[in-house]
Write a structure and sequence with these properties.
The protein contains one helix and 17 strands. By secondary structure, it is mainly beta. Strands 2-5-8-11-14-16-17 form a seven-stranded parallel sheet, with no helix packed on it. The longest helix is centred in the C-terminal third of the chain and has 5 residues. It is globular and about 40 Å long.
Length: about 200
């Protein structure tokens, strides 16, 4: 599957890949896409992914290139029913809007989320030249142990001030205004949607 130059906006997720078997030379590929989800309760994400293998594949189920992922709580999440799942992100922007502090009674699932995963479920993410912003890179606590990752190039993270910066990421200390400007969906040019549609 190849998806290019698309916008996906949804309640639970803006896009995703659910339960495929890896096809080594034919991953589901998304290029220059924008994904936004509006709900933050339950099995939700800007992009929701879930593989069906019992062992972590050496190739990705899905590849995202030059994409923007925006969500109230996490950008990329392993589906609750996902098993061993692998994703590759290149030059992507992952933005989670939740910076809630635990001291205030809040909870965040991280920019890359494995909260609530099935027993045996795990997510591996290969990141290359990506920009992240959110409470934490990974899900805090034991659920976050279901995530592994690799980094190449320059990967930056703007995080809540008490959260650790995982190895392979460069922490950004000042507000990344240009990254947060990417929260808005891309313009549609001269397209006009008629009333009532």
């Amino acid at each position: 599957m190849l998806v290019e130059d698309c916008v996906g906006v949804g309640r639970a997720f803006g896009g995703g890949v659910a339960y495929p078997k890896v096809r080594p030379d034919e991953p589901s590929t998304f290029r220059r896409c924008y994904f936004l989800a509006l709900d933050f309760v339950g099995d939700t994400a800007a992009v929701l992914v879930g593989g069906s293998e019992d062992a972590m594949p050496d190739r990705p189920h899905a590849v995202f290139e030059d994409c923007t992922l925006v969500h109230p709580d996490n950008a990329l999440a392993l589906s609750y029913a996902g098993r061993k799942t692998r994703v590759k992100l290149t030059r992507c922007r992952l933005i989670a809007l939740n910076f809630t502090q635990p001291e205030m009674g809040g909870k965040s699932t991280g920019v890359i989320c494995t909260q609530g995963h099935a027993p045996g479920g795990s997510l591996h993410v290969d990141l290359e030249d990506c920009r992240l912003a959110g409470y934490s890179v990974l899900t805090p606590g034991p659920d976050g142990e279901a995530t592994t990752f690799s980094t190449t190039g320059r990967n930056t993270a703007y995080l809540q001030f008490k959260q650790p910066t995982p190895e392979g990421f460069e922490r950004i200390g000042t507000w990344p205004a240009d990254l947060f400007a990417a929260i808005a969906p891309p313009p549609f040019g001269d397209a006009v949607i008629p009333p009532g549609r």
